[in-house]
Amino acid sequence: MRILHTSDWHVGVTLKGRPRLDEQRAVFAQLADIVREERPDLVIVAGDLYDTAAPSSAAQKVLYSTLSALRQTGAEVVAIAGNHDNGPGLEALREWAHAAGIHLRGRIGKASDHIVTGTTESGERWRLAALPFVSQRYAVRAAELFELSVADAESAYADHLRRMVSALTQGFGADEVNLICGHLTVVGGKVGGGEREVHTVADYAVPAAIFPASTGYVALGHLHKAQKIEGPCPIRYSGGPLAVDFGEEDHQPSVTIVDVTNDTPARIREVPLTAAVPLQTVRGNLGQLAEAAESGIDERAWLRVFVTEPARAGLRSEVADLFPRAVQIHIDPVLRADATKPKERRSGRSPGELFGEYLTENGHDDPAVAALFGELYEATQTVAAED
């Protein structure tokens, strides 16, 4: 059978306040094209469908239309909740999704609730254990946390996940393709930026050994960097379909295609998502940035710019004119006052003098800024007197 594995869609994500739904629509349209071309029997979306637990109506429309488009290709579709999702909210849609031919799992229930089975057109049977994100608060009872040390609490979480996976995989047999999908951190996985750190620290890491060797493929979500995990069976993070922040700008968004049978090893390859808008960081002084603006900048990219010269009035505006698609501009002066120099006394000095000293100490010695401060200070003092 053939599987298309994707995850961490983060529908509705913004970049420094800029909406990205149009970007996501383009990426998901390409994803649907890939599904039509590759003709997988099964599409797995391994969690973090939304970027927030309270998605906008526009984000919900994008998600439902995308899942429906994938299902209309003829592929079976399985989607699970991640740590960014409202698990109970997605679970409430389970019956609706089932009617649409989509297998949706939002939160933990009975073990039997998380088993999805099917048969490909060629008659190959498959069994999938679908495990949504499990928080430590849910996995470890409060009474146990009160009595255990930190190390014991971490062990209890991993052990709890091991027991859950064991229960879910009890029915794995040799005559069908055995699959697992989950949204979790596995030891050895590399964090690529964008993930919520609280859910990727050691408290939430589980060993790859929890997955049985009888598993044909483990489709994971949560870590945004596409990567293989060493373990007793094929284990992989597909990575996200677009970079959600600048910590992921070196990622090539992709989906994973898996060909596997019940008695042959999984063959895995990546298919890039070229519709994803890249993120790029640019550094330099104003002259260097002007040269970069002429060449070396992807015209589609969202930019983060570091200006390596002292701040002055109007500098940020000049940089913004050079890079209309800059969503972050950091003035990063290379000239700093000597930190070992004794600071001058402050008592008895005027606000203008103190502000001027602050500018000098931080490499922002600009007469225009100092003059503007003086005007603003005078205006505020005048208003205070009138009041």
Automatic annotation (TrEMBL):
Q: Which CDD domains match?
A: MPP_Mre11_N (cd00840)
Q: What PANTHER family is this protein classified in? A: COMPONENT OF ATP-DEPENDENT DSDNA EXONUCLEASE, NUCLEASE SBCCD SUBUNIT D
What does the UniProt keyword field contain? DNA recombination, DNA replication, Endonuclease, Exonuclease, Hydrolase, Nuclease
Tell me the ranges covered by the Calcineurin-like phosphoesterase domain, including all copies.
1-100
What's a single GO MF annotation on this record? 3'-5' exonuclease activity
What are the coiled-coil residue ranges? none
Q: What does this protein do?
A: SbcCD cleaves DNA hairpin structures. These structures can inhibit DNA replication and are intermediates in certain DNA recombination reactions. The complex acts as a 3'->5' double strand exonuclease that can open hairpins. It also has a 5' single-strand endonuclease activity.
Assembly, in brief, is: Heterodimer of SbcC and SbcD.
Q: Which GO terms describe its biological process?
A: DNA recombination; DNA replication
Which superkingdom does the taxonomy of this entry point to? Answer: Bacteria
The question of whether Cytoplasm is a record keyword is answered with no
Q: Which family does it belong to?
A: Belongs to the SbcD family.
Q: What is this protein called?
A: Nuclease SbcCD subunit D
Key word Transcription present: no
What gene is this protein a product of?
sbcD
